[in-house]
Amino acid sequence: MIENLFSLQGKTALVSGASSGLGAYFAEVLAQAGAEVIIAARRVEKLDELAGKIVANGGRARVVAMDVASPESVELAFQAIDAMTGQLDILVNNAGISTKPGRFVEQEEDIWGGLLDVNLRGVWRVAREAAIRMKAHGSGTIINTGSIYSLCTGIMKTDYNVSKVAVAQLSKNMALELGRYGVRVNTLCPGYFASDINAAEFGTEKGREYIRKLVPQRLGEYRELAGPLLLLASDAGSFINGVALPVDGGSLLSPI
What we know:
- By secondary structure, this protein is an alpha/beta fold.
- It has one domain (2-245): 3-Layer(aba) Sandwich (Rossmann fold), CATH 3.40.50.
- It has helices spanning 21-32, 44-56, 71-84, 109-119, 121-137, 158-178, 199-202, 205-213, 226-233; strands spanning 12-16, 36-41, 60-65, 90-93, 140-145, 183-190, 244-247.
- The chain is globular and about 50 Å long.
């Protein structure tokens, strides 16, 4: 039935980087679609608040502490997840950071190391643990959060752009290896949305001028990511594997 295509009833979903921003919103969307969500991040107090909100709205949520930059933390988090549920069906691999904008020649090596440890190695760490479990029971879907910069480039953010291109390539390689085991892997690539990372920048006059140059001449609204997220997470997208899906209002048609 068409109305059941996007349902996540009976599914268990893990969302990393869920303490704020898109991660918190993604967790709420999955819960509203019927999934039991396991929300993970470093800031457990924020997770507790989010879990309370989800439960108050009729959903189901559990909390696990996880720092994706720490292999030990990721391992302990998945041990806790194994104790919570017999099967992990969905991973939204969302944890990520940005650094202060700067030109390529001005960036220091230690900045690259910290960003890549979260945005690339952190994504790999969490995806690997989820994939091992999904492969074992023959089904699952992994959604790695990329960016419009997974698909284009721009100045002043070389380290971030490279990390997001790498995430999209990681997803393709995972999809190629895991597809035969019933596990789908895709990259969700938001365009320009306000978040903890960029809200202050977009709030300046320079930021508002930047927004006016975009094809849609506005930022995206979180609700505009709900449909694409559910498409990739649910049976509605059962034959979608290895794609990088932009949700950008057409900004890729004329990147700035």
